[in-house]
Specification:
By secondary structure, the chain is α+β, with helices and mostly antiparallel strands. It has three helices and five strands, in the order H-E-H-E-E-E-E-H.
Length: about 130
């Protein structure tokens, strides 16, 4: 009979004693192994959601102009922590303008690092969040 290779715990590397199909030395190691394996996608999603919330907050705070429109320089967005990598949707107008939105707040790139911040209240109305007077 060939000698069996010594089995080690997938989490801590300790020698496993017991059944031949055992993969972990203890319940604690098994739980920790699965926690680490499943936590990476959860952290990624959490980080993206936090970036989206931060982007929305930055756009909301800077867009204080009349009728929900304000012209702002790219540097002001960046210094507030805006990340151009994350947004919720885009909207292309018939005129060919591309608006980038983070929930109901968005922008239109004007050129030379200037942006027109906009707000689409109809997004809130569709969700039932817009207060009626």
């Amino acid at each position: 009979m060939p000698a069996q290779a010594e089995k080690v715990c997938l989490e801590c590397g300790e020698k496993i004693v017991g059944r031949t199909d055992k993969r972990f030395c203890s319940d604690a190691c098994r739980n920790l192994y699965h926690y680490h394996a499943n936590n990476a996608p959860i952290n990624y999603v959490r980080n993206v959601v936090n970036a989206l919330k931060r982007n929305r907050r930055v756009l909301s705070e800077l867009n204080n102009g009349p009728e929900g429109k304000t012209k702002v320089h790219r540097d002001r967005l960046l210094e507030r922590g805006y990340s151009f990598m994350y947004h919720t949707n885009t909207h292309r107008t018939k005129a060919g303008n591309n608006y980038v939105f983070c929930f109901e707040h968005g922008y239109l790139e004007l050129g030379e690092s200037w942006f027109m911040l906009v707000r689409r209240d109809e997004y809130l109305g569709r969700a039932g969040d817009l207060k009626k007077d």
